[in-house]
Design brief:
The chain has helices at about 5-10, 25-35, 50-65, 80-100, 105-110, 150-165, 180-185, 210-215, and strands spanning about 75-80, 125-130, 170-175, 190-200. With about 260 residues, the chain is an alpha+beta fold.
Length: about 260
Amino acid sequence: MTQRDFVDDHQGLDAPAAASLPRGPEATESLYSVIRRRRDVRGQFTGEPVDPEILTRVLGAAHAAPSVGLTQPWDFLVVTSDTTRRAFAHHVGEERRAFAEDLDERSTGRFAGIKIDGVLESSLSIVVTYDASRGAPHVIGRRTIADAGLYSVCLAIENLWLACTAEGWGLGWVSFYREPFVAELLGIPSAIRPVAWLCAGPVTFLHGTPDLERAGWRERVALADVVRHDQWAVPADFVGRRDAPVLGGAVSSDVTHRR
């Protein structure tokens, strides 16, 4: 497949084919199932060669992400070189040791058993970058929120993550690295920021529980603990009480004073 074929196959969703997008309970459940199954993968990669068509599909999903001012400020560097990946893995190991030196005794013990990357085990790596100059200087939506372009890149990464999950692949985001090291390793121009080094490829399985939760490092926070309504002081558990206002209805003047 040529680069032109790739672009033609992954243009906007406003094409006539958009009218045939799946709808209904089955499509909805399929989406939520992928979201629930997604994991930050470290140790389940098979390392087998990837199907080029699947790689094209998951990159196309990433490229279909929304972006501020339609700038599409991302690039995707597919890394397959053993030499490059070994150099990066060595760098990650150094940063892991530096992090471990700052931990207390209890955390050190827990961290020792946590695998932080699958750089050498995965089939390939995908480095996602951010180009702030794309679409500049007049980017619609970025004038008051300078990081909106960076957020756009993160949306592309999430699309990629979910697409990999749907294809039976795993994906793991490696964050133990220094950006200047990656830029030099991959010859990335100084104005371009390497946002994520992602390990990707087929996996034997996906764990039902995130690695850090299984290792006892952190626990999942309940949804009710992070949802608030209208004002910061109104917790989610306030909604549903007999004295709570109906959402979308008339506003009670003393809502923000109740706990």
